[in-house]
Amino acid sequence: MTSVMNRRAILGLVAASPFASVAIVRAQTQKVRIAAVPTDSFGLAFSAQDNGAFAKAGLDVELVQFPQAGPIANAVGGGAVDVGLADPIQLAQAVIRGLPFRYIAGGSLYSSKAPTTQLCVQQGGAIKSGKDLAGKTVGVYALGAFPEYATRAWLEAQGVDISTIKLFEVPSGSMAAAIARGVVAAGVVSEPFLSQAPAVGVVPFAKVYDACAPSFYNNGWFVTTTWLQANPDLAHRVVTAVYDTARWAETHHADTLQILAKYGKLDTVAAAHMNRAVWATSMNVDALKPPLALGWRYHAMDRQVAVSELVAPSAR
Asked: How many other CB atoms sit within 10 Å of the CB of residue 302?
């Protein structure tokens, strides 16, 4: 059974009692609860479940499905899930606030050669260059997180006065429709929605993540230090399963697309030609540095955070 939390439920989860009523996808008995989002850059856990990697590692897993990644850190911090995915800026912000989060494995990698996230605009619309966005509303799927800061950096590199831009949060799955209706002049769209955007007259316009670096970690697998200290063997098994699945996914794009489509209710024909996420098969701490530098540049953090503060010793 698959249940998806809607935006109202997410807001209630974060603002009121964050961890009281999260819907789950059950598999056997509860031993490890892992968060997953039905997008290519956050959905490897679905493949690990369906291809048997979790079972092979001796794990009984509950997948906790979120429609977007923002609330995952709150869920891990509150004990609703054991393992989640978060971008480096998110994790650094949490660590600064005193939350004992640590990465145990590398997640998905952004690649400029095959970007899974781009800024999009209306096809044939008024936006022809970055400067045309001055004074306009631009959509990002997470304010106060990496998508916002990468977009700011790209706009500034285009000579746009950021003070004239209104940044508006729109879920990635709704972004193309918001652009098509003119709710936002441009918006950051990620796969699998990016490849489906042309169907509603919305096209890729700029690789805004390139303003950070040509390649870096979009996210990583993290836990609390308390859970890690109590469950080192479970953590090791999770890492084994996700890295095994990452290697499997490299040569099984059709299979992973079918799995993602099952959980995300996607049109596999429309999504068949999308750029696919690249998943880490080991921890590369240097790939965490560009997002952290970007977050510091835009004052997303009260202080600079060293990679060693974010990565568990066992993962280095």
From this structure: 11
**Torsion-angle region of residue 134: left (phi > 0), alpha (psi -120 to 50) or beta?**
beta
Helices (H), the chain: 7-15, 44-50, 53-56, 72-78, 88-96, 146-157, 172-181, 225-230, 232-250, 253-264, 268-271, 289-297
SS3 assignment, position 272:
coil
Q: How far apart are CA 212 and CA 294, in angstroms?
A: 6
CB 268 within 8 Å of CB 259: no
> Strand 32-36's sheet: what is its strand order?
24-25, 61-65, 32-36
Longest CA–CA span in the chain (Å) reads: 56
Q: Which CATH architecture has domain 117-211?
A: 3-Layer(aba) Sandwich (3.40)
Q: What is the CA radius of gyration of the chain?
A: 19
- In the DSSP assignment, the letter for residue 138 is E
Query: Per residue in 147-181, pLDDT tens?
Result: 999 999 999 999 999 999 999 999 888 999 999 99
Residue 45: partners with Cβ closer than 8 Å, 6 or more residues away: 34, 35, 36, 61, 63, 242
CATH of 7-111+215-315, picked from 3.40.190.10, 3.40.630.30, 3.90.1150.10, 3.20.20.70, is: 3.40.190.10
Question: One fold for both 7-111+215-315 and 117-211?
Answer: yes
265 phi-psi bin (left φ>0, alpha ψ -120 to 50, beta other): left
Identify whether the C-beta of residue 103 lies closer than 8 Å to the C-beta of residue 287.
Answer: no
Q: pLDDT for 226-263, tens place per residue?
A: 999 999 999 999 999 999 999 999 999 999 999 998 99
Q: Are 110 and 116 in contact (CB under 8 A)?
A: yes
Report pTM: 0.85
C-alpha 243/C-alpha 280 separation (Å) is: 7
